[in-house]
Amino acid sequence: MSALVSSSALAGTFVYVSHAEDGDIGAWSMQADGALAPLARVQAAKVVMPMAVSPNRRLLYAASRSKPYSVHVYSIDSGTGALKPLSTAPLAESFPYISLDRNGRFLFGASYGGHLVSVNAVGGDGRVLAEPLQVIPVGRNAHSILVDASNRFVYVPNLGTDQIFQFVFDEKSGRLASNTPAVAQMKPGTGPRHFIFSPDNKFVYLLSELVATVTTLSLDAKTGLLTEASSASALPPDSKLQPGSPRPHPRNTDNDIWAADLHLTPNGKFLYASERTSNTLAAFGVDAASGKLSYLSSTPTEKQPRGFAIDPKGRFLVASGEKSETISVYAIEQATGALKLLQKYPTGKGSNWVEIVGFD
Which tens digit of pLDDT belongs to each residue from 210-250? Predict the structure, then answer.
């Protein structure tokens, strides 16, 4: 890398994209203007999909959904962004979503096909222990799992039963116990999928795959229980898409709503959601006090955009597409939240999950 390029780089901001069909992970260094410089790809295994970064940003975890189901752990070089394989451990099921607790000591997994969640202990060196601490049956099609900022409450949206399972988490033992009530019931046929927390941990924003709504739920800091507050559609008013239903499906789904992922800017001002049938990213304005969302616009993006991410400074968004040979980098207009396409870069086959790690 030339001195000119390295001096213009953000102090170590790196982009990682899992390539399901190639079975590896692509890496890029992000420059101050959002431009990406490619780094070496690292091997994982076929159908590598969900990824998670440790709280100290030194480790990247990537789960493979081909048998034998496993999690690959890599160290992240904070200076160069290079990934170095550390270890591989078995997982209880095929997980479309993995995450870590706030101390990086436990790895959570949610299984769509297995209708379960699991917890594995993580050693001090970042290695995942082979035997899960817990494997817990939940509703149909568990699609994501995250712990809140207090590290006390864990939530699991279940697409097939339109529920969010609510757990209390013991950060010492790593064990999950059902909250009371154990589930928050969502509207029938919505298909709750991915979710995120507001920066102040007062709200959960939940994306429903089958109708492309983002629902705001208030989070009770004492009990950890969720209460639905409001909802907004991620589809343009003139959209002709119809509500979907849980997949795999025997019928034609070409016109089905198929929402995938959502992320907030670090300052909590703007939220974005991807919809795979229309290949778009929807932008919302966020009212911090009420958590209410206002639909702003939709931007065309990569084909079948399953995953995207926002850089830690909230200046750029990187989107991947499972049926696309490129990833797109957008500048986020700081006043309006509008996305401006900066550049597309070649990527691997089946690109589906994006993580961005910053060290400045």
Answer: 999 999 999 999 999 999 999 999 999 999 999 999 998 88
**Could you tell me which residues come within 8 angstroms of residue 67 by beta carbon, excluding any fewer than 6 positions away?**
none
The CA radius of gyration of the chain, in Å to the nearest whole number, is 19
Residue 307 has which token pair?
């995953």
* CA distances to 64, 73, 89, 94, 99 from 123, in Å: 20, 12, 12, 22, 15
Q: How far apart are CA 284 and CA 291, in angstroms?
A: 11
- Both tokens assigned to 37: 């410089």
Q: How many CB atoms lie within 10 A of CB 229?
A: 14
User: What is d(CA 242, CA 85) in angstroms, rounded to the nearest whole number?
Assistant: 43
Query: Among positive and negative, which fits the CA dihedral 312, 323, 275, 44?
Result: negative
Long-range contacts of 204-207 (CB under 8 A, 24+ apart): 204/155, 205/262, 205/264, 205/271, 205/291, 205/293, 206/157, 206/164, 207/234, 207/259, 207/260, 207/261, 207/262, 207/273
Q: Name the residue ranges covered by the structural domains of the chain.
A: 3-358
Q: In the chain, where does DSSP find H-type helix?
A: 3-8
Contact predicate 351/324, CB 8 Å = yes
* pLDDT, tens only, 290-345: 999 999 999 999 999 999 999 999 999 999 999 999 999 999 999 999 999 999 99
Token reading at 138: 């939940």
C-alpha angle 281-328-16 in degrees, rounded to nearest 5: 105
Domain 3-358 CATH superfamily: YVTN repeat-like/Quinoprotein amine dehydrogenase (2.130.10.10)
- Quick one: tokens of 321? 């597409």
| Distances in whole angstroms, Cα of residue 305 to Cα of each of 71, 211, 262, 324 | 23, 16, 11, 9
Per-position b or e across 335-355, b if 16+ CB within 10 A of its CB: eebebeebeebebbebbbbbb
Rounded CA separation 360/350 (Å): 30
